[in-house]
Amino acid sequence: MSDESSIKVALLGFGTVGSGVYEVIESRQNQLRHLVGHPIEVVAVLVDDISKERKMGSHVFVTDDFQEILALPDLDVVVEAIVGVEPAYTYLSHAIDQGLHVVTANKELFAHKGFELQKRAKDQGVELKFEATVAGGVPIIGALTKLLQVNQVLKIEAILNGTSNYILTKMREEQISLEKALTEAQALGYAEANPTNDIEGYDALYKIMILTELLTGRKVNQNYVRCAGISTISTDDINQANLRHERIKHVGVIEISGEKVFSEVSLLTVSESHKLYSVEGVDNAVLVTGDLIGELVFQGPGAGKYPTASVMVEDLVDIYNPVSKSIKLVTKK
Question: Binding residue per annotation — 13?
């Protein structure tokens, strides 16, 4: 496709999520054109190894040099699906400075540099979308932004890491060790080869930091947020909870009382009456308590190629058609 009026997108990263974004855009062309009034075209992809074979159209420019991405004519949006603070922060800073809109799924980057990127985007008059940084396929950023217009959010309890939730579920259901459950999660693509961020709780920590900043409008220092992972859990711990008709969950908590804010990520033992008790497998769930609306639960897949990719494409659509959030993209696995 080479329509001059198309919205031209560059993807940074073509791993699980990046390739998913490409596939959603390619397979939903008619729907996307209807939503935003123009075709959406992936014109370039930034990768580490340009010699690796990838499934994409011959018209897509593949490079390992970000400066070649910036030099592309008529580029509109950069969609970032890599990991870590750098070089992503440098890439997105340059993209924003060049007047490009940005969509990111990088929770570590946004937890540490989200404030700076949002200020830079505001100064440059471009959009910065980050829905996919927090809960995979669960659109909690948009929901909280709308809630904040009238409601004051008093508390959040959230399962924000699909990998750790999957492992805890498997340990209980199949009476297997954490190590065996982790191996299964890796085989299914839910956990990375290096699972430290999931197992030690850092992934959930980054997401809690992002939500805390969203709710308070203040930058969060990671050193002031307590973080515990699931690495110390045994099947005996899980069985003891079962005997009490309880389940152990890996939960991020935010509590707000006036100017006081408390945030942490820890292991929480919940009873059958708790809204997070039945959240199993790779699902994420966010329990929000508002001063006017009471309790709301947002639940959906927190890991996997298409849930995260579809949310990123929703963000892309939202840049050009703000009312489109009421029309959800349906993706097929």
Answer: yes
User: Both tokens of residue 123?
Assistant: 């100064």
Q: How confident is the model at residue 136 (pLDDT cuts 50, 70, 90)?
A: confident
Q: Is 44 exposed, middle or buried (0-12, 13-18, 19+ CB in 10 A)?
A: buried
**How far is 267 from 233, CA to CA, in rounded Å?**
9
Q: Do 322 and 286 sit in the same domain of this protein?
A: no
Is 79 in the same domain as 195? Answer: no
The answer to whether residues 41 and 102 belong to one domain is: yes
Query: How many structural domains compose the chain?
Result: 2
Catalytic residue among 8, 129, 207, 305: 207
Please choose, from the candidates 24, 17, 61, the residue with its C-alpha nearest in 3D space to the C-alpha of residue 331. 24
Is 2 inside a domain boundary?
no
What six digits make up the tokens of 164? 């750790």
Is residue 207 annotated as part of the catalytic site, yes or no?
Answer: yes
Which distant-in-sequence residues (6+ apart) come within 8 Å of 98 by Cβ?
70
Q: What is the pLDDT of residue 331?
A: 43
Residues 104, 109, 113, CA angle at the centre, nearest 5°? 105
H/E element, 270 = strand 260-271
Report whether 192 belongs to an annotated binding site: yes
Indicate the helix (H) or strand (E) that contains 300.
Answer: strand 294-301
Does 59 score more than 70 pLDDT? yes
